[in-house]
Amino acid sequence: MNFPLFIARRYLFSKKSTHAINVISAISVVGVAVATMALVVTLSVFNGFHDMVASFFTAFDPQLKVTPVIGKTAPADDPILTQIKQLPQVDVATETVEDQALVIYNGRQAMVTIKGVEDNFDQLTHIKEILVGEGEFELHAADMFYGIPGIRLAEALGTGYTYQEPLKVYAPRREGQLNMANPMDGLVADELYSPGVLFEVMQGKYDKNYLLTSIDFTRRIFEQQGMVSALELRLKPGSNFESVKSDVKKLAGDKYYVKDRFEQQDDTFKIMKIEKLMAYIFLTFILMIACFNIIGSLSMLIIDKKDDVVTLRNLGASDKQIVHIFLFEGRLISAIGAVVGIILGLVLCWAQQTYGLVKLGSSSASFIVNAYPVSVHPEDVILIFITVLVVGFLSVWYPVRYFAKRLLA
User: Fold this and answer.
1) How far is residue 279's CA from residue 149's CA, in Å, rounded to a whole number?
2) Are the C-beta atoms of residues 218 and 114 closer than 8 Å to each other?
3) How confident is the model over 294-333, as pLDDT tens digits?
């Protein structure tokens, strides 16, 4: 039996001579529990937003994207890209050409990113799941090219789901000098027609700025014949994703970047990770403040147990064991507060997931989801539990040793 732990457990639950000590001990547990609960709920909400954003991107982004390290484009017949396409784990490979252009419709204009893809793009991604309108996913018909804008871009241009007039597309020529007398000579002009659908990723980066069309159109207007901006891949079901990604990176060497869906949106997810880290740090500081109650409780307990300390020393207890009694007392308060706080936090997360208790706004149409999304990650719960124990131990270690030494002197 651990003698200091046994005595500390008795002290924690026994009635003290001064009732205020019991009250302060209870307040200490509540303070730690509330701070722990706040950590669980806050980090779970950040996880919820992270998972929600990731689910939107996966409807448009490929599993793996290979892009050149130098320059915007690379030759489509590069042997490295050919080897990557021929990997046995690759189910669908699509070449894309992407660049910016000016789009004009009925006097309205916008700078957009035009992404040209091959006809198998619907097999590569879940593009059909995010189409809205009465048409179908089509990129061309004979010599006519279709353009599928994002829903926010369509609103800005005033096209509606089906635009009656063709979209005028202008891109700067790659070669030659600009003739100031006739600036239009420095632009390549073409037209795109409506297939009767728009796409809605529910992310401004795509919905406001992207226009999807055939790769033949983009190669022509950007004067990029025989070139690709990226090679986008979808793997066969059951493939080991990390293993295939490693194989593709080996083939790509230092000539191409190889990015998964999260790395393709690295800027967005990096910001979310930083925000989550900052929330964790601030709430940990609040937890440290809550632990000051433990210090007050223990200092009063040490004074209250003067006579017990004398008795324990007469019975043969060493000074080290007596110090450990009060250290264990602080650890028990932290541990109980951590367990209670985690349970309360998990209950609140479950209630939010099930019933959507906290809404994002009064208007259901203003947000993608009506209530704050929540996702509990086990690694976060473990991190929080360890954090509470470490903070609780560090906060009482010096004060307990200081007061105990004065008592034992």
Assistant:
1) 37
2) yes
3) 877 777 777 766 777 667 776 777 777 777 777 888 888 8
Q: What is the DSSP letter of 128?
A: G
Determine the 3-state secondary structure of 361 from DSSP: coil
Dihedral of CA atoms 254, 255, 260, 262 in degrees, nearest 10, equals: 80
- The residues with which 144 forms a beta bridge, in sequence order, are 141
199-232 per-position pLDDT tens digit:
998 888 899 999 999 999 999 999 999 999 999 9
Tokens of residue 49, six digits: 């937003």
Q: Quote the Cα angle for 85-90-95, to 5°.
A: 45
Contact of 325 with 404, CB cutoff 8 Å = no
List the Cα angle 263/269/274 in 5-degree steps: 130
Please name the residues in contact with 84: beta carbons below 8 A apart, sequence gap of 6 or more: 66, 90, 93, 231, 233, 248, 251, 252
Element (H, E) at 35: helix 19-57
Question: Contact 104/170 with Cβ under 8 angstroms?
Answer: yes
